[in-house]
Design a protein that fits this description.
By secondary structure, the chain is an alpha/beta fold. The protein is built from eleven helices and 17 strands. It has helices at 35-41, 61-67, 85-98, 117-130, 181-190, 204-214, 216-226, 234-241, 250-253, 278-285, 342-351; strands spanning 2-6, 52-57, 76-79, 105-109, 112-114, 138-143, 153-164, 167-177, 193-202, 263-268, 272-274, 293-295, 298-301, 307-310, 317-320, 325-329, 334-338.
Length: 361
């Protein structure tokens, strides 16, 4: 079994720590490790380094090489330009096929936390074993919801179709991205909806053929580039033609159009959290909502439900009577915001473009 970890996002919701030159997945927000490093390490020892692939932008080439010295050079797949996740997935799947790899593969993301790692790897193993049975060509990994999230996608799953050592597989009935509050509450209480992690187990041939069927322009463009794979013309062709590929999300290009009868869902609690935003990071690390989460030189009194991260070693941050606040201090930016205001951070960073503050993005 192979694993592909996608690590090309920019992460403006974790600004000012996450910047264009060094996005969130490369920053040390959990202990002394980046979430990319954690994503790789949690796969060991079930996966060998040779079975793990990293897809990212070529601008981050030196960062990923430095952070992941055990990953073989040929397993780094670099996009010359950002064209959204659709072309990135098509390119990776097509490249694996060119290398003669068509065994089960799991698609993962670089900015998540998983606390129950043994259960997580068991799910991957069982999903790989179930692939191909009962017409199942792709298996979505859903998470038992902890609350009625409006910021995550949800999978709708139906009846149980198979159980293997306490791991149950269900029919796939569809999904919805970021529902409104009322709908999220209905999903949470339904007993047939799970958080959509964006993780799935499938084969390269199935996904590449799905692009051929549902997103032919992306497929043709990628196939045209891969015709030169293994020749001295490949890098030049990739650089010249990749940027012309249609920019489209993987969900819009393929996932929303797949035959539901070919899909299944497994739903478990693996202690998953998306730490793509500060309030999500706090929720992932806290033991209870009132707890303060801090990093660096921080001193808090009479404060609750706040996250304070200080990346300046010489400065002490003192907080008094803080409640539901985010404070992030770097060497050039101090962010102070309510937890509920995190969605506005992306807007602010986008507004910096074309101003004297653009260098801070």
């Amino acid at each position: 079994m192979k694993a592909v970890i996608f690590a090309g996002g920019t992460g403006t919701r974790l600004w000012p720590l996450s910047r264009k030159k060094s996005p969130k997945q490369f920053e040390k927000i959990i202990g002394n490790r980046s979430t990319l490093q954690l994503a790789v390490e949690r796969l060991y020892p079930d996966f060998a380094s040779a079975d793990i692939y990293i897809s990212t932008n070529i601008a981050y080439r030196e960062i990923v090489r430095d952070q992941l010295p055990n990953i073989p050079e040929k397993n780094f797949i670099f996009e010359p330009e950002k064209r959204d996740v659709g072309p990135a997935v098509a390119f990776v799947m097509g490249k694996l096929l060119k290398d003669g790899i068509d065994e089960p593969v799991v698609i993962l993301w670089s900015d998540h936390l998983v606390k129950h790692e043994k259960k997580f790897k068991l799910l991957l193993k069982k999903a790989a074993s179930f692939l191909g049975k009962m017409n199942t060509r792709i298996i979505f990994i859903g998470h038992k919801p902890r609350f009625a999230s409006e910021n995550l996608g949800w999978i709708h799953y139906g009846s149980s179709i198979h159980t293997d050592v306490d791991v149950s597989f269900f029919t796939f009935e569809g999904f919805q991205y970021k529902p409104n509050k009322k709908t999220a509450e209905e999903f949470y209480s339904s007993g047939h909806h799970a958080w959509n992690l964006g993780y799935f187990v499938t084969t390269p041939s199935y996904i590449f053929e799905a692009f051929h069927k549902y997103a032919p322009r992306v497929y043709s463009a990628v196939e045209d580039i891969l015709k030169t794979y293994g020749t001295k013309e490949f890098e030049k062709t990739l650089l010249k033609k990749y940027g012309a590929i249609e920019s489209v999300s993987f969900d819009n290009a393929v996932i929303e159009k797949l035959d539901k009868s070919e899909a299944a869902t497994v739903v478990e609690d693996i202690g998953w959290s998306d730490v793509g935003a500060w309030e999500a990071l706090k929720e992932a690390l806290e033991n209870n909502p009132d707890e303060n989460i801090t990093r660096g030189r921080v001193y808090l009194e009479y404060s609750r439900d706040s996250l304070v991260y200080n990346y300046e070693g010489k400065k002490l941050i003192v907080g008094v009577d803080l409640e539901g606040l985010l404070v992030v201090n770097t060497d050039d930016v101090l962010l102070v915001a309510r937890k509920s205001s995190v969605p506005k951070i992306k807007e602010i960073v986008e507004n910096f473009v074309g101003t004297e503050n653009e260098k801070l993005t």
